[in-house]
Amino acid sequence: MNLSEFDYELPSDRIAVAPARPRDAARLLHVGAGLADYVVRDLALLLRPGDLLVVNDTKVIPAQLSAMRGGARIGITLDRRLDDGSWRVLLRNARRVKAGDVLVIDPDFSARVVEILEGGAALLRFEAEDFYAALARSGALALPPYIARPEGITERDKADYQTMFAAHEGAVAAPTAGLHFTPELLAAVQGRGVEVVRVTLHVGAGTFLPVRVEDVSRHAMHAERGFVTAAAAAKINTTRAAGGRIVAVGTTALRLIESAADAAGEVHAFDSETSIFILPGYRFKVADVLFTNFHLPKSTLLMLVSAFAGIERIRAAYAHAIAAGYRFYSYGDACLLERV
Fold this sequence. Notes:
Layout: E1 27-31, E2 35-39, H1 43-46, E3 52-56, E4 58-60, E5 64-69, E6 72-81, E7 87-92, E8 102-106, E9 109-116, E10 121-127, H2 131-138, H3 155-160, E11 168-171, H4 183-191, E12 195-202, E13 224-228, H5 230-241, E14 246-249, H6 251-259, E15 270-274, E16 289-293, H7 300-309, H8 311-323, E17 334-338
Parallel strand pairs: 1-17, 3-12, 3-14, 4-11, 14-16
Antiparallel strand pairs: 1-2, 5-6, 6-7, 7-10, 8-9, 9-10, 12-13, 13-15, 16-17
């Protein structure tokens, strides 16, 4: 399967640089037997009593840091925290950085280089009295590169780029499907007889990296840390047993519950990394419906939605969305995909 099969042309003015206001005023394309245009606040009408919404409650951290190594300024982008407390990061301007070096972020916040990895990555061990307080003080939000902020990240971005479900710190990027939700929309969904369960997948810096091989089966998928509690797993399993549909809010929630499922489709408690790479031909074990944004050309997420809804249906849906003026990517509009 070639990378070129997942390409499409998008006019630059269709890339959303700010979210709809209110969030649930974004447009929604329903992709089922046909295509139908709605707005996100209509979501409850497209769900059924007994369905279960699975949301990702990760919280975005200010993952961009600037440090000094002697007289050299080093850029640091956090990727994911490892079990031993160290962090896998991506470094910039770091050709001379070596294991043992100390990178000074501010007088009370530094990092020691544990190991230099391939592809500009490294393992760092941070030293701070309170790591997340130090991040809040010295870090910056890592917005996707297509959302230009020449004057820097705004206070509004800090609120816009966080979902209403955010609870557990650790994500470099937002689970963007969740950005569409408001308390009013959630109340309407629950009033429809749809329950909500939370899982956690900390979206890593690898989500920004392009696929660089033409044969997509050779792409090395980045790892991300995920958590599914025993209670959440049981709720998913009982919903499926009762005939309810599992509606994943975002590709992150979908990838996590598919990672936590066994071959028979039963979901188990999960506390591990996942590097699941979903391509057309993948047999879905858990998710029945996917609520998601419109994804970048040649991206692993476009491959995932093509696997879920079918390549031709996704091509038709994206062509319709472009012709109809939908807004794309992280701050853009949404689609509700029925599994093929």
